[in-house]
Every structure is written in structure tokens, then in C-alpha cells.
Request: fold
Amino acid sequence: QVQLVESGGGLVQTGGSLRLSCAASGGSFSTYIMGWFRQGPGKEREFVAAIGSSGGTTRYADSVKGRFTISRDNARNTVYLQMNSLKPEDTAVYYCAADPRSPVLYNYWGQGTQVTVSS
Reply:
């Protein structure tokens, strides 16, 4: 069983930056595609970014392209989301996910970390 624990969320002003981390335990982290999703207040959960098992392939939602960067360290079983130029609309609970069955259906999910961007 894979366990995912997110950290790094918090309160930041518009234009600021945060780096989220997701530490994985159990399973075979280096073989999994990893993703980040978010759910804002009153909104459905949405895809943010994904990264291939070796880190060579990445994909982003249009809303975060050029501002967010997903990366991973397979030696540390950790995936990161660097978020720059944050906007109030980025306010959400951010979730880490592993091992997708489809582009948005992943087998394993973390508990989430809150990101709040003040205007």
C-alpha cells in the first residue's frame, strides 16, 4: 500500500511562491507516474500537473503553465510542486496522487495541503 504525505502549504500573498512536497512510502515510487491535483472552495477537484516515472515527461494544466513546475527525486521518494507568481484563484487544497489508471483517476491519494493566496 502506498502512502502519500503532502507538506509545504500555507498562506502567501499574490505574486508569492510556495513549494509543495509529497513524500511517498510503500510501493515502488520510481515506477509511478505522479500527479498534483487541487480543489478550490466550491469547486470540483482539478488536474494541476503530472510527471513521468523518470521525471523526463511533464504535463500541466493550462491555468498553471509557466508558473508551476513539477519535479521528483526518486532517491528520496518525493515529488515537488514549485508554485510561482501565485494568484488568489490558486487557493485550494492541493493533493498528491500516484499510479494513474487514467489521466485523472489515480490509485493512491494524499490527504492534501492547504494553499491560500491572499489578494
Remarks:
- The first strand starts at residue 3 and ends at 7.
- The mean pLDDT is 96.
